[in-house]
């Protein structure tokens, strides 16, 4: 009961245009502003990048931000940040870090710009968090996913191999 | 002439430190004070005080409180030396000296200047497990690995030394252990590919005495290949190299962020090493020695007498850093010097601490399933090795495969939260986690100063049990059996304290300080402090009256992992979000609460 109320609130809290799929390319999905987004089919199958984002988030981000973008005693809930922040600001904070250090806060986001385990998957992590923010993808491991496209595989190898 | 002068100076120095050492021993043995974090060198965390006992503990009241001014997770405990209490905080690692004769007025406050860039390099919150006292000094090992010796009376810095490099992911969360004329310190950063080490600095001036790495050449790990033993046999040459592929030992992990014990008769320091980096086992073939290892080293030289590797080639992040509790007990009709260790991997180990002989290895949570047993037959080629169950082997299942239902989870059946031993009941009192996991390893690349993890984890309460995420148990280390077990809704993340009052204290993540009957586990007292408890209970007297003190302030790995509640992806839809969220029970805030009986 309570959770459905919260979900209704969350649905109203964001602009559909932020996440609506305008087109897809090689297994990736984009909004009309060419910003990466997630795609969930009617039977619950999610796109590969969102699934990949689930895995990478829980390797790279989880230890501070808690499971599934929910936030922790230590760091904010990124499922909210992915909706509240502009895509390019999100990239900037992940790449260059951010400090909020004052009397009441000592929160420091490190710069991940040189970390291929984050930067090669930054769009995947972004779309996963967006999907969590809108509750399009539930907590836990996504059950059904699209396959990894050849283009995604090639680009991943090129990014990690460099 | 010059040589004579030097010898004379060394004699004088030696005499000075011997006196300091004797004084520290005397202070440690005095139950009215609490001078090092572990209570004593044996890590028993047992208080001989008995004014507060099982009959009157129900009347316990809050005597006074103190806000630390810091919001992060508060681990460790205050110290009491004479009429002064020393309270530390998480980053920025402030230390307060409080005057117990003057209503805990602040005598001095020390706040180090640290670069805030160290904060995100500390995996799982900016906790600190406390200061230690020796030789009229308070030793603080800061988050940024600076070790500072403060004048205990004035808070003035006497010397400082930097132990590691935070830009490479080297940080500190642990306390330090003063031993004779040295202070022993560890290092964190296993999730950043740090090569772990234990280091001894000279108390007099902070100069380096020795450093022992967890892996690498024999000259780095300070062993004698002929004399240092593993399960009774000489270790042989290059064990810290030939159990790794190529140069991987250089970023091998095996950090030393737990607790340290000391046996003055054997002159041995005991501790455990953490997980090998990365969490993807396929990327580091071999036994990865000496990660996941109990170590016994000579306090003067650092040279190892014996090692025991509990989890060769880790596949689950079962760090071996938990405390080593030293006891003298009857074992099969003979009084032996024992070492008892509750490992993250879910086995409770009892060893002979003189020789390193393995005596007992039994599961201290019945849900532990990743291994069937530890082989106890010295003639077996598997002697001392856990027998891994294929279904739960993230190595055998391979990269990019999700292994499900592994118990315990990566946080272990118990993490650093220390157990207590009562020589009066002969039982160990152990705060535990009752959490299982799914674990999917995948390939990662190493960048200095960046996380080097390589696995996705989902954690959830152990199935077919009481639904909670923790237990507080009493353990018989000779039989290897649970004597009683108290189910808890959340992992028990607080260090326990047993006392001569026939009671045991511990804290809970909701924030309760509890007292239970040491023999039966029956709950005798409970009080909800302002925030979740991940600190350790301690006791002292002032003006002849016994006090119990505990730090509240939720956080640490518990605050990260449990804040939003856990989900079991294997339970099917609908159960998701069905487990308690810690954020529904408590909020951030560091506070010390001191309890006493009414006057």
Automatic annotation (TrEMBL), chain A:
Pfam families: Cytochrome_CBB3. Residues 52-126 form the Cytochrome c domain. Signal peptide: none annotated. GO terms for molecular function: electron transfer activity; heme binding; metal ion binding. The keyword Thylakoid does not apply. The keyword Metal-binding applies. Gene3D superfamilies: Cytochrome c-like domain. InterPro entries: C-typ_cyt_methanol_metab-rel, Cyt_c-like_dom, Cyt_c-like_dom_sf. Keywords: Heme, Iron, Metal-binding. This is Methanol metabolism-related c-type cytochrome.
TrEMBL record, chain B:
InterPro entries: PQQ_b-propeller_rpt, PQQ_MeOH/EtOH_DH, PQQ_rpt_dom, Quinoprotein_ADH-like_sf, Quinoprotein_DH_CS. Residues 1-20 form the signal peptide. Disulfide bonds join 123-124. Pyrroloquinoline quinone binds at residues 75, 129, 173, 255. One of its GO terms (cellular component) is membrane. Binds 1 Ca(2+) ion per subunit. The active site is at residue 317. Pfam families: PQQ. GO terms for molecular function: calcium ion binding; oxidoreductase activity, acting on CH-OH group of donors; pyrroloquinoline quinone binding. Residues 34-360, 493-548 form the Pyrrolo-quinoline quinone repeat domain. SUPFAM superfamilies: Quinoprotein alcohol dehydrogenase-like (SSF50998). Ca(2+) binds at residues 191, 275, 317. Its cofactor is Ca(2+); pyrroloquinoline quinone. Keywords: Calcium, Disulfide bond, Metal-binding, Oxidoreductase, PQQ, Signal. Belongs to the bacterial PQQ dehydrogenase family. This is PQQ-dependent dehydrogenase (Methanol/ethanol family). It comes from Roseibium marinum.
């Amino acid at each position: 009961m309570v959770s459905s109320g919260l979900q209704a609130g969350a649905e109203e809290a964001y602009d559909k245009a932020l996440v609506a799929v305008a087109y897809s390319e090689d297994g990736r999905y984009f909004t009309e502003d060419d910003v990466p987004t997630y795609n969930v089919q009617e039977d619950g199958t999610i796109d590969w990048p969102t699934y990949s984002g689930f895995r990478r988030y829980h390797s790279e981000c989880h230890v501070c931000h808690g499971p599934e973008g929910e936030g922790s005693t230590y760091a904010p809930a990124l499922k909210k940040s992915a909706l509240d922040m502009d895509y390019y600001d999100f990239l900037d904070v992940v790449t260059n870090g951010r400090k909020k250090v004052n009397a009441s806060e000592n929160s420091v986001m490190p710069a991940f710009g040189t970390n291929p385990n984050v930067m090669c998957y930054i769009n995947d992590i972004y779309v996963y968090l967006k999907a969590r923010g809108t509750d399009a993808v539930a907590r836990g491991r996504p059950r059904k996913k699209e396959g990894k496209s050849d283009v995604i595989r090639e680009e991943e190898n090129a990014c990690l191999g460099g | 002439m010059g040589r004579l002068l030097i010898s004379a100076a060394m004699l004088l120095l030696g005499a000075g430190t011997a006196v300091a050492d004797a004084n520290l021993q005397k202070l440690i043995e005095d139950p009215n004070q609490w001078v090092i974090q572990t209570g004593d060198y044996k890590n028993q965390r047992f208080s001989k005080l008995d004014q507060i006992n099982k009959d009157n503990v129900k009347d316990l009241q809050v005597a006074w409180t103190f806000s630390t001014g810091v919001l992060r997770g508060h681990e460790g405990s205050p110290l009491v030396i004479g009429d002064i209490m020393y309270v530390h905080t998480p980053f920025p690692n402030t230390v307060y000296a409080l005057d117990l004769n003057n209503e805990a007025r602040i005598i001095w406050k020390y706040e180090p200047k640290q670069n805030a860039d160290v904060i995100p390099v500390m995996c799982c919150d900016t906790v600190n497990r406390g200061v230690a006292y020796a030789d009229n000094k308070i030793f603080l090992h800061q988050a940024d690995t600076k070790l500072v010796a403060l004048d205990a009376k004035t808070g003035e810095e006497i010397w400082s030394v930097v132990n590691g490099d935070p830009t490479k992911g080297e940080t500190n969360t642990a306390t330090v252990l003063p031993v004779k004329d040295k202070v022993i310190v560890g290092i964190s950063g296993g999730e950043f590919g740090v090569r772990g080490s234990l280091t001894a600095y000279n108390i007099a001036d902070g100069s380096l005495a020795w450093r022992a790495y967890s892996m690498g050449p024999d000259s780095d790990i300070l062993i004698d290949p002929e004399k240092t033993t593993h399960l009774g046999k000489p270790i042989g040459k290059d064990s810290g190299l030939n159990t790794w592929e190529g140069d991987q030992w250089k970023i091998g992990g095996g950090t030393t962020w737990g607790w340290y014990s000391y046996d003055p008769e054997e002159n041995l320091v005991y501790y455990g090493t953490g997980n090998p980096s990365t969490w993807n086992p396929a990327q580091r073939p071999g036994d990865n020695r000496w990660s996941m290892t109990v170590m016994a080293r000579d306090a003067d030289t650092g040279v190892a007498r014996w090692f025991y590797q509990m989890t060769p080639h880790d596949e689950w992040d079962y760090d071996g850093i938990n405390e080593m509790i030293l006891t003298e007990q009857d074992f099969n009709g003979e009084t032996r010097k024992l070492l008892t260790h509750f490992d993250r991997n879910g086995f409770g180990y009892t060893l002979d601490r003189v020789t390193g002989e393995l005596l007992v290895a039994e599961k201290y949570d019945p849900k532990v399933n990743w291994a069937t047993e530890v082989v106890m037959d010295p003639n077996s080629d598997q002697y001392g090795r856990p027998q891994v169950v294929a279904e739960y082997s993230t190595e055998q299942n391979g990269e990019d495969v999700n292994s499900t239902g592994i118990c315990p989870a990566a946080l272990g059946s118990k993490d650093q939260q220390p157990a207590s031993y009562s020589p009066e009941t002969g039982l160990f009192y152990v705060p535990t986690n009752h959490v299982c996991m799914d674990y999917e390893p995948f390939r990662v690349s190493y960048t200095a100063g960046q996380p080097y993890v390589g696995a996705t984890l989902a954690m959830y309460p152990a199935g077919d049990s009481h639904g909670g995420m923790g237990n507080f148990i009493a353990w018989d280390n000779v039989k290897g059996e649970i004597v009683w077990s108290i189910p808890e809704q959340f992992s028990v993340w607080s260090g326990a304290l047993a006392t001569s009052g026939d009671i045991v204290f511990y804290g809970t993540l909701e924030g309760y300080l509890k007292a239970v009957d040491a023999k039966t586990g029956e709950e005798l007292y409970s009080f909800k402090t302002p925030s979740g408890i991940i600190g350790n209970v301690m006791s002292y007297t002032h003006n002849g009256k016994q006090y119990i003190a505990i730090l509240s302030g939720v956080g640490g790995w518990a605050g990260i992992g449990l804040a939003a509640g856990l989900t079991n992806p294997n339970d099917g839809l609908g159960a998701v979000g069905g487990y308690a969220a810690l954020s529904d029970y408590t909020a951030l805030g560091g506070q010390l609460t001191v309890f006493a009986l009414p006057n």
